[in-house]
Design a protein that fits this description.
Layout lengths: L14 E8 L14 H9 L3 E9 L11 H13 L4 E4 L5 H11 L2 E3 L1 H12 L3 H15 L3 H15 L16 H6 L2 H28 L4 E7 L5 H9 L17 E7 L2 E6 L10 H6 L1 H8 L3 E7 L5 H14 L7 E6 L10 H7 L4 E2 L8 H15 L1 E7 L4 H10 L1 E6 L5 E7 L4 H6 L3 E5 L10
Parallel strand pairs: 1-2, 1-3, 3-4, 5-7, 5-8, 8-9, 9-10
Antiparallel strand pairs: 6-7, 11-13, 11-14, 12-13
Bound molecules: guanosine-5'-triphosphate and magnesium ion.
């Protein structure tokens, strides 16, 4: 019934059993009601059919088999019973744990990181995204390559025509099949090549992002499926792909957002975050996340209808910290306010995060208020200045682009006149650099609805 080579155009619906370990005090972190609900979402996103689940409580992970030998024996029977093809663990496993569990369960075993990498591999559309995913997969898998060899051989042999014999399917997309034939040195070469190519893309991306410094830039960040793309569309009239699936967006899109009164900002969509986002993936996706890293302001979009909103917020905040964005001003945007239920986390968040703003990207509720809040943030940080300078004064221009935004540029009588938004503290520097300040609003104007 199963072929050993996966057809690239078909997503094989493998039968998956999910396994979670509940450690003391860590019970139900991530998911208050169902500790495996997110893993289920991930497995489904990868194209698998979830046919069963096993949860084990232990004081600490067992070094050899993670959930303990006795439990693995039970798992082996359970998996047989359910005719499952693959077992997915809700955490990272060491290569030796994977080998050991596979030996006992006689099925392909994946950990959470491999599953996430696999979804990314199936979603990557552009050249850059493909390179990024391939690098992350190679880096995660290369140290396990030996395990990979024996494991694929063993599984292919051991299965003997049963469903367990399938090689391919989830966890083997992208460079997986290729690795069977090649040796570690070739992988290393490929990793080096990919890194070079990605570094080039990174540099190009950085130039692009820097070139936008005339504008105030805003990054949409948030957990996957929170509604970032929907919000981008609602605010800017764009038509980004929106889908009720995890990681619908892998490439950043930037659109102009009209804030009223002639003001505009650039709004960028980003890849969704997830709890324990694999480190390699964060590193590989730096170019994509560059928009967020260099934004003047972040909108942290939350699915407030979810009962996991609080833990998703924490997960996103930790990825932002990893990217070095802790200092970037952020507005917490509680989205999907149109579909909250009794179990939604919003009730808790309303008291804990009073700075947050409630919106519905779907019904447009709260979007005017969001825009006002953004305008207010911009005006709090920046004053409006009109400055006159020599058109050849490159130093002043460079300084201004780095520290503020140029809103308008005119050339009356061979001079250059700039309308700027600049942090108040930077204004004296304009004079030092040879500019003549014509107009300078001392105090930020109160925000008005645009
Ligand atoms: N009820 C409701 N659903 C929404 C709202 N905003 C977005 N959605 C739905 O949530 C799902 C995910 O929306 P996306 O905009 O694709 O989410 P995203 O954050 O871009 O997701 P990724 O790109 O996968 O990280 C879609 O089914 C949207 O229709 C909202 O305000 N209310
Ligand atoms: Mg999206």
């Amino acid at each position: 019934m199963q072929d050993t080579q996966r057809q690239s155009e078909s997503v094989h619906a493998e039968r998956a059993v999910l396994v979670g370990l509940l450690l003391p005090g860590r019970e139900y972190t991530g998911t208050r009601y169902d500790p495996l609900s997110e893993l289920k979402g991930l497995a489904t996103a990868a194209g698998a059919e979830v046919v069963g689940r096993v949860i084990q409580k232990r004081n600490r992970p067992a070094p050899g088999t993670y959930i303990g030998r006795g439990k693995v024996a039970e798992l082996a029977e359970y998996v047989e019973d359910k005719s499952a093809d693959v077992v997915v663990f809700d955490n990272e496993l060491t290569p030796s744990q994977i080998r050991e569990i596979e030996k006992l369960v006689r099925r392909k075993v994946l950990d959470r990181t491999e599953l996430i990498l696999d979804i990314f591999a199936s979603r990557a559309q552009t050249h850059a995204a493909r390179l990024q995913v391939e690098l992350a997969q190679l880096e995660y898998t290369a140290p396990r390559l030996r395990g990979m060899w024996t494991h694929l051989e063993r599984i292919a042999g051991a299965g003997g025509g049963t469903t367990a014999g399938a090689v391919g399917g989830i966890g083997t997309r992208g460079p997986g099949e290729r690795q069977i034939e090649i040796d570690r040195r070739i992988v290393q070469k490929r990793v080096t090549l990919l890194k070079e190519q990605l570094a080039k893309i990174d540099r190009r991306k950085l130039r692009e992002v820097r070139a936008r410094s005339d504008y105030f830039t805003i990054g949409l960040v948030g957990y996957t499926n929170a509604g970032k793309s929907t919000l981008l569309n609602a605010l800017t009239g764009a038509e980004e792909m929106v889908a009720d699936k995890l990681f619908a967006t892998l490439d950043t899109k930037t659109r102009r957002w009209n804030l009223g009164e002639g003001r505009a900002a650039l709004l960028s969509d980003t890849v969704g975050f997830v709890r324990d986002l694999p480190h390699n993936l964060v590193a590989s996706f730096r170019a994509t996340l560059e928009e967020a890293i260099h934004s003047n302001l972040l909108l942290h979009v939350v699915d407030a209808a979810s009962h996991n909103a609080s833990s998703q917020i924490r997960a996103v905040e930790s990825v932002l910290a990893e990217l070095g964005c802790q200092e970037t001003p952020t507005i917490l945007v509680l989205n999907k306010i149109d579909s909250i239920t009794d179990s939604s986390d919003i009730h808790l968040l309303r008291t804990r995060r009073q700075d947050a703003i409630e919106v519905s990207a779907r019904t447009a509720r709260g979007l005017d208020e969001l825009r006002e809040r953004v305008v207010q943030r911009i005006e709090e940080r920046y004053v409006r200045v009109i400055v006159d300078a020599d058109p050849a004064n490159g130093k002043l221009l460079a300084y201004v682009s780095q520290h503020g935004q140029i809103c308008a540029r005119e050339y009356p009588d061979g001079r250059m006149r700039l309308e700027l938004r600049l942090p108040p503290a930077e204004v004296p520097r304009l004079v030092d650099l040879g500019g003549r300040v014509i107009e300078h609003a001392q105090r930020p104007r109160p925000a008005r609805a645009g």
